[in-house]
């Protein structure tokens, strides 16, 4: 039997993100095994897990909540990737690629959230001048 989340493009892309994160963190220093390596991997896995769990919920409110959690985990992946780049654990070119994938997944999660909740979740922080 195939479950509905397996047909979601956003879930499929989040799986690709997990593989990408595992690949890039395999080159991190050994002393980061329980630091950024673990944090990044857990956050990436959380994105796909919460998409899957949200799709299984009966109420739209519950679905929206899990998509919101998935989005939060996605932002964790971005933040931790930026920090990894700052610490020279990740090349800038890798960060650019990850960021592109994160943006794409974020837009798709926003659409899922809107369909469940009827509103948008923020995809970009606004500055005071905007």
Protein described:
The protein is mainly alpha-helical and 130 residues long. Helix content is 69%, strand content 0%. The protein has a single domain (7-117), classed as de novo design (two linked rop proteins), CATH 1.20.1440. It has helices spanning 9-25, 36-55, 60-86, 92-117. The protein is elongated. Residues 124-130 have low confidence and may be disordered.
Structural class: mainly alpha
In CATH terms, the superfamily is: 23S rRNA-intervening sequence
Portion in beta strands: under 5%
What number is the mean pLDDT? 90
CATH class assignment: Mainly Alpha
> Total number of helical segments?
4
Question: Uncertain regions: pLDDT < 50 for 5+ in a row?
Answer: 124-130
Question: Distance between termini?
Answer: 48 Å
Helix fraction by DSSP (H/I, runs of at least 4): 55-70%
Q: What is the correct CATH architecture?
A: Up-down Bundle
**Major sheet, described briefly?**
none
Q: Report the strand count.
A: 0
Keyword list:
about 130 residues; mainly alpha; de novo design (two linked rop proteins); 4 helices
Layout of helices and strands, plus pairs?
Elements: H1 9-25, H2 36-55, H3 60-86, H4 92-117
Helix pairs in contact: 1-2, 1-4, 2-3, 3-4
Describe this structure in a few short sentences.
The chain contains four helices and no strands. The chain is an all-alpha fold.
């Amino acid at each position: 039997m195939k479950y509905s989340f397996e047909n979601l493009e956003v879930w499929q892309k989040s799986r690709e993100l997990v593989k990408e994160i595992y690949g890039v963190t395999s080159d991190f220093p050994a002393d980061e095994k329980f630091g950024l390596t673990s944090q990044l991997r857990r956050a990436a896995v959380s994105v796909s897990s919460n998409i899957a769990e949200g799709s299984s919920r009966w109420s739209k409110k519950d679905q929206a909540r899990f998509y919101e959690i998935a989005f939060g985990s996605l932002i964790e992946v971005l933040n931790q990737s930026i920090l990894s780049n700052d610490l020279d654990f990740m090349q800038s070119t890798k960060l650019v690629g990850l960021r592109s994938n994160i943006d794409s997944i974020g837009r798709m999660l926003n659409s899922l959230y809107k369909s469940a909740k009827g509103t948008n979740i923020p995809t970009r922080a606004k500055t005071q001048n905007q």
